[in-house]
TrEMBL record:
This is NADH-ubiquinone oxidoreductase 21.3 kDa subunit. InterPro entries: NADH_Ub_cplx-1_21kDa.
Amino acid sequence: MSANAVAKAAGGVVSIAKKQTLQSTGIWESFRKALAIDPNRSNGVPLNPYYRLPAPGSNDPASFEDPVTLPAGDIAGNPYWKRDTRRNYPQLSVVSQADVVSLLTVGSAVNPKVELIGEAGEKALVAAQQEGQTTGLAKALAKATPKDVAKDLFVNGLPPLPSGQSLSSGEWNVHKYELTDRSYPDGYPCRSFQ
């Protein structure tokens, strides 16, 4: 940049006559200058012959081709539900009463009650789920002995902790809580502005 251009850019106010904007003329210009807060400020509407290349309506509408970007523009392989981030909620996991009854009667893959392998295990699992759907959890709990239910549901005679930790160590530090001077601690992903 030359020194004149820098001085012109930093010089401040440019007269309205040098601006390429539509302005009022005649008595209305003097009226605008008398009532305006800043008389040297333009209205910002550009002159029609300038900055209008190509002019609106000069292009043939049939010659325009919509630019398609792949894969975003491919409608067949890019449905809206896949790219809809506003409604992309985490899916809830639901355990029905039939699932709980089958866990109580047959057990899980980690902790099976009866050694059922192959088709016998599949049949027992299907039968337990059908029993849970027809009778429900209350009848399955009433049918089972309290010791078996307590052995399956409780950990060392106590209900399981939400975090999955055990209280045998005597401490339960899942989330450390400390008082800080600010409203949010450093580990919290939130900024507070002053």
